[in-house]
Amino acid sequence: SSLDKDRIRTFMTEIARAFFLSPSIEDDGVQLGALTFNEGTQHVVYLSDVDNPDKVIKRMESMNLTEVGCRTHTFAALERMENEYFTPEKGDRPDAINKVIVLSDGVTKPSSKESNTFNNADSLRATGAEIVVVGLPQGCPPDKPKCVEKVIGQDEWMAISGADEDPNLLLNILNTDFTKLRETIINIGNKVCGPGSVKIN
Q: Which end of the chain has fewer CB atoms at under 10 Å, N or C?
């Protein structure tokens, strides 16, 4: 729904505000990149853009969430992160561990590409990146008042995070709903940068 999309945009903007954005590891600065995915992927911000933190926040606030096709190309998002976003040209720091936060309310579509999602997640984790999945319920269209929100995709989320092979990584799957995304920011901060790393007002 439009409301849920607005909540996602607010959530991502608040994440950008909650971290200390800086290209410097020495001052514990966090770099942040973002893209959206549906049918294909859409660029929002690169890691190197944290040279101007206000620019990063403004891009988050104004990110376009218009649906492009009725697809969920999770495989494309994971591949693009590894091969474009986590590159020195786009600001990747070799001495910093890459953390990936995937927000999803379902599974890869078309289903024939699910193996690509698993392979690309494995490839991304093989670089040393850690993947945290925020699983959200599938919302209901406004024209279906009797619809009940449902959570689907847990098996895929486990494979993306690596928890299907390492039970310790189950902690990297956060199930929530759209109204509780703000509370999830602290949990994400603790997973990505350690306790006390984020502050929200």
A: C
